Amino acid sequence: MSLTERTAWTSLGIGLCVLMLKGIAWWITGSTAFFAEMLETVVNVAAASAALMAVRYSAMPADENHPYGHAKVEYFSAVLEGALIVVAATLILQQVWGALQAPHFPDQPVTGLVLSSAAAAVNVVWATVLRRRGKRLGSPALVADSHYLMADVVTSVGVVIGVFLVTVTGLLWLDPVMAGVTALMILFSGYRLLRESIGGLMDEAAPAELQAKIREQVSTTAVGALEAHDLRTRRAGRFTFIDFHLVVPGEMSVEAAHEICDRIEAALRESLGSAVISIHVEPDRKAKHSGVVVL
């Protein structure tokens, strides 16, 4: 089992533990805000399950029907998680409306606050670990799951503040109002995640800083060539796809040109990790005098 898959299993287990804590908090207090928070965590567990399935499927090797591998499935999982965030925020807003119509004072609020705070602390720690590990492993599904957990933390903080203020001031309307504010923040988080994930499905180019790094690597390692042009990039999961045209002197042998390509590919893979590189070699009469100049 890969580290990515083990991380996804761990995330699911932690999600179930947090759900249990929030479920107990709601059951003890009867608070509408705690109920809304529990509903969000139910969606969180569903999202973690989707991330696990995506991670397992994306790890499958390339086959005849999927010659470029299965890494893109993680973007589908991330889109699903973004949609689930929107669903969770909608559910919370529905509960907020009901609570505004018939507000009530929660039972045993201190116990509920302790349980909700403990759940938030667990999510903060795990979301931080998950985000760093997801970026290191190049897993959009794990990174998306970390975003969702942080959205869950925002909800928890808002709910804890709301219930605490209700307990101290006796103003029952503060509970649903704070839950409504956090729901709007979650909606923004869901929109951002959907935007990033759909960009991956649409084969957006790699970030500008990564493209600059690729150009620098090509410029410094393609000694013997003249230029590289028509550089294109895209990301799919942990893989960076790179293709470009490499111009070499017309009299250069195929073997010599191949050695240059091997040197470029080795440098790019060492720098980027998982990379799929396609280089089209052209004679000097095809030079465009633009793109990457070989130093």
Relevant terms:
2 domains; elongated; Alpha-lytic protease prodomain-like; alpha+beta; Alpha-Beta Plaits; about 300 residues
Summarize the structure.
The protein is of the alpha+beta class. It is built from 8 helices and 4 strands; from the N terminus they run αααααααββαββ. α7 packs antiparallel against α8.
Helix content: 55-70%
CATH architectural designation of the largest domain: Up-down Bundle
* Spatial strand arrangement across the major sheet: 3-2-1-4
Largest sheet: 4 strands, mixed
Q: How many structural domains can be distinguished in the coordinates? A: 2
> SSE order, as H and E?
HHHHHHHEEHEE
Radius of gyration: 25 Å
Strand content: 5-15%
Distance between the terminal alpha carbons, to the nearest Å?
43 Å
CATH class of the largest domain, named: Mainly Alpha
Stretches where pLDDT falls below 50 for ≥5 residues?
none
Shape: elongated
> Quick one: how many beta strands?
4
What structural category arises from helix and sheet content?
alpha+beta
Number of helices: 8
CATH homologous group name of the largest domain: Cation efflux protein transmembrane domain
CATH topology annotation of the largest domain: Alpha-lytic protease prodomain-like
Mean pLDDT: 81
